[in-house]
């Protein structure tokens, strides 16, 4: 496994991603963990719930507005809370999660907005910035994850009553928060060799209770409209049953996802990622807890429709699996500066892509000649890398590519990249790699704990005045 050790490549990620607990309702998730979790709330893949949320926001904007709280002289309005509330309710309904009483949920979301607002103010005060090109790329990522062009995404958002300017503002704020949290928490998550050894000893032997396990489920959702007739429900249930039978008979689950699933966002293969049972809807766990790996359950009914579920992986929480999915990619990196603007770098790499596609240039040769990265001498080859080895924006784009495919230019915190995936594999972990995976898991846990403490510190330093309660 390729391991981060600066400075081989600027895309190698220096720290594990930080919790984005306060981003509920934002259209793009860039981090991996959650705190202040709602009952049954799932972690969202990037782009999840982007479409269809504008209508809820539009409804809010027609309500009489007033200030519910002031954070360091900056107001939070009732409409802001209501917009977040309606988006969160919609997401929980799609996931089949139990929705708390509305007044309780509104108070929780108002508190999240207060902490989020205090952090955004800190980001601005300490000079954290996000360029227009980075926001452009984030918008393009959301469009790609929803299988549409950026122009189609804009039209869809505006048709739902969500202005593109507000959508971009949400994305910018989320990226700002990620960069601030990465900077503030990096030094708080050191893991010693003794901690790694102790963790392995503590986990060695014995059967783990279900709550101590992690599950990776994949789902196919056959959605049922809210006002569906009994005949429609019966037809959709029969459709879900047919899908389940095909999955059990050995049909590729990812292909069935593409053909039948109405689940918003996601990775394209229906997988929701390794997580503990409390981070799945209870009905998902009840349906799959006795399945063997590879088994299929369902259809099971939720408020969103009928779900067909497949158990992809199950392991003890915090422990690395026996194998890891790895990708071998190469890239060309151009750094913006006085001699080359970011826009010019994007244009140059777009030209490189066109020449490569036409067979007029070789990717490796272009990387050797032009890439401003230590990998240039190897034709841009970054070697084999598992999840978490690259910064999120790079890894997300890389994971969206098929072997042999070349990306559009990507703007990251290091510059502008052109990426090509060479091949993928599932690789068995050596003992040393397992130790490094344990170290990464412990660092992630420390980052989550550090985030909670840091968020409380930022919240404690802020002046907060409560006005009228949200409605």
Structure in a nutshell:
The protein is of the alpha+beta class.
General description of the model:
This protein is α+β, with helices and mostly antiparallel strands. It has 3 domains: 17-206 and 449-471, Porin chaperone SurA, peptide-binding domain (Triger factor/SurA peptide-binding fold, Orthogonal Bundle), CATH 1.10.4030; 210-316, Chitinase A, domain 3 (Roll); 323-428, Chitinase A, domain 3. Helix content is 43%, strand content 16%. It has helices at 54-61, 78-94, 102-125, 132-145, 150-159, 164-185, 193-203, 230-248, 253-260, 282-288, 342-357, 363-370, 392-399, 431-461, and strands at 67-71, 74-77, 213-223, 296-301, 305-316, 323-334, 381-386, 410-412, 415-428, 464-466. The strands form 3 sheets. The protein has a 4-stranded antiparallel β-sheet with strand order 7-6-9-8. Strands 2-1-10 form a 3-stranded antiparallel β-sheet. It has a 3-stranded antiparallel β-sheet with strand order 3-5-4. Strand 4 (296-301) and strand 5 form a beta hairpin. Helix 3 (102-125) crosses helix 14 (431-461). The longest helix is centred in the last third of the chain and has 31 residues, at 431-461. The protein is globular, with a radius of gyration of 23 Å. The relative contact order is 0.16. Residues 1-10, 12-62 and 205-209 have low confidence and may be disordered.
